[in-house]
Structure formats: C-alpha cells, structure tokens
Amino acid sequence: MMDQRDKKGDMQEQGLELNHLAATKTTLRMEVAALSDVGYRRSNNEDSFGYDSETNIFVVCDGMGGLAAGEIASDKAVDLTLKTYNDLTSQEINTEQRLRSAIDSANETVWNMAQQDYKLRGMGTTLVAAAMLENKVIIGNVGDSRAYFLRDGDCVQITEDHSYIAEQLRRGGPIISDEASQRLRQFITRAVGVHPNVEPDFFALDLKPADMILLTTDGLTRYADANKLAHHIYMHSNIEDICRGLIAIAHEGGAEDNITCMLLRFS
To answer: Residue ranges of the PPM-type phosphatase domain (predicted)?
Structure first.
C-alpha cells in the first residue's frame, strides 16, 4: 500500500508538495497532483492533505484552533480518515458507509484529543474527501473546504459550505454586505472534532474520461469562483502546473490564509 502521508514534513518546510499517480485499479486511468502553501499572512500551515492510491481515497483538511492546534487537528483527521477507510476495505459495506465511518473516526479522535489536553480545546478542522470505486466517486465534506466537478469546460461546486454565510443564503436570508461577509466568513457551522458527533454531507457522481475533481480549502476559493477556476484549469494540460497556477491565483489576491488544492484527472 502506498501512503502519501510520509511527505508531510517536506510540504511544511517548503510550502510545496506534488504527487503524481499514473494509474489506479479502477477502469479509468487517473492522475493526481496536490500542492499546499502557507500563504502570506500565516506563520504555519494548518492545512493537510493525503491520499492512498491503492484504495483510491483522497482527503484535504483545513485546521482551526489556537497555536498549533489547527495543524494537529487537520493532520490527525487526514491520517484517521485514510487509516479507517483502508481498514474497512475487506468489509462488505458500500463506499459511502466506509467514508462515513472514516470521517466519524477522525471526528472522534480529534474530539478526544481536545478533551484530554486543555491547550487543544476548541480545535477542529474542515474536511473534504473523494473515494473512488470503479467509475464512481463519493464526495464527503464537513465545513467549507470544497469539491468541484469539471467536465466539458464547465466547473460546478459539488459540496455545500457549512458556514454561517452559506447557511443564511440557503435559508433565503438577507444579502450580507461585503464588509460583514469578510467578518462572518470565518464562522463554520460544522467541523470535524468540535463536537462528539459530526454529520457529513455526501454526493455521488459517475465519471467518464476527461472528467476532473478539485478538492480545495477556502484559501483558494475566496479568490476564485467556479468560472475562474475552470478558465485556469482548462488553459493548461499538466496538472502539476495547474496546481501551481491555482496557488498563484491566491497569491495574487493576497493569500491571507493557507492554500491547498488537489486535482484528480481521469482518462
């Protein structure tokens, strides 16, 4: 089993991590590239990502909490999601159930760590994950890290943000001013590790050649909507270059937060 978590240290030191996968055990070939950057305003990177190319599970997390707590939360959430999902490989449960159990395990571990150490109280993390089986993908998310689906030049946000602003808009609440939006953007309504239990959202998609999936933290999406993401992604053929360019978009906007993106392309 090839686990990509062992390169986390290099990512934190250099602000850059690229991974490439030639093929998987699905009927589609797949490439994946991932990059994380600390941004201009933060002294440490609280984002984490990881994947396992044998079981086809891909995870991106954005930690939150004082001192290094956010980094701990996101790192543990990635590790436990991958581990639990892989541990359930031999059991006769469907992909969504495996992913749900993996996210539950991550939530329980982060929650318990915070209860046992007062310095970690209040820590948590967003999580977005993609799990593939043959030509289907299940997306699970908690928080405001997002998954986008790209096909035939279009880019559609798959996930729904679990944030105060997004919840208000879904309920038909009043339009929030740009200034207020900036202040309220940080308020997340669901996160891994903040409560004893968590309720992820799940989405299922059928895949075909040339489809792409982007998993990303809000360090990128606050500077680019779906149209801007699509314009950049379809302008380039090398997925590692695409990830570098997405990070550059966040830098051009000021890069006030950590930025992580993971791009999956099928052929």
So the answer is: 31-266
